[in-house]
């Protein structure tokens, strides 16, 4: 812009363009404005005259989002939104959750690796969103999972991951290890400080029943299942996906209440109708871990989480 085109507030001819009275249309004096300044004024005028239209559009979009969100909530496809977190609200717990990925040979399909990668990502994302942080570690990270993560989740490099197996990694704390598995009758009562809870990082549609149970026993590691049967009845066997198990632990740490944790995390379609209350799990069908359905619902979950996280970063 040339110096003659700069509006000079002292000569009274052209007030600053950001003030409403600055409009050359309103001014008694002929306006001395550069082309760019005029364009800017026009843009500003157009912007202010469209304000109510924009407000309406925003309102409508919000209302539509609300309806969509309520429908997803009702179907149990997403979790209720939690309040925005401040750093000072975060509690770092001295409880470790390990995702043991030592099962590459038992997962022939690429899609199972993609599924596992997505599930682990969801664990990290749930931990990040929670005010109660658990120490989350991936062990036995092998070549195929690494390749999948490189392609699908490049930010995995920020995670805590090890190529060594969990047992060697925590050999000095063996008595603190608890392998979580649906195949033992023993139920976990609480999450103990200083302990290390291991989740089998495998997507097997329950092809390998009792796999983690046997492997843990071979190593003399304690085993426990989640106390689901005490609080609710499922339509099928109580084998959950890796992320659901982690999210339950995370929610339990937040609320100190298993029932709330199960209700918030386990998809409603897995609950027996009219029964979400205490019952032993003996009557559970020996069904499959329905990861395909989970994946489908996860698509919604992903976009919701992304939208939510994006919204938070904008703020
Ligand atoms: C998809 S399951 C794998 C099932 C596999 N057949 C096995 O032998 O564990 C993924 C992991 O989630 C954990 N898990 C699933 N359901 C559980 C439950 N009801 N109680 C405790 N852990 C569970 C176990 O660590 C399991 O290895």
What do you see in this structure?
One of its GO terms (biological process) is tRNA N1-guanine methylation. Keywords: Methyltransferase, S-adenosyl-L-methionine, Transferase. Residues 282-297 have a biased composition (Acidic residues). The longest helix is centred in the first third of the chain and has 24 residues, at 51-74. The chain is 42% helix and 10% strand. The protein folds into two domains: 1-34, no CATH class; 88-314, Alpha/beta knot. Helix 3 packs across helix 4 (143-152) and helix 3 (110-129) runs parallel beside helix 8 (242-255). The model is unreliable at 1-25 and 275-315 (pLDDT under 50). Strands 3-2-1-5-4-6 form a six-stranded parallel sheet, with helices on both faces. The radius of gyration is 28 Å and the shape is elongated. With 315 residues, it is of the alpha/beta class. Residues 180-182, 199-200, 202, 204, 206, 208-212, 225-226, 228, 238-242, 245, 289 line the site of S-adenosylmethionine.
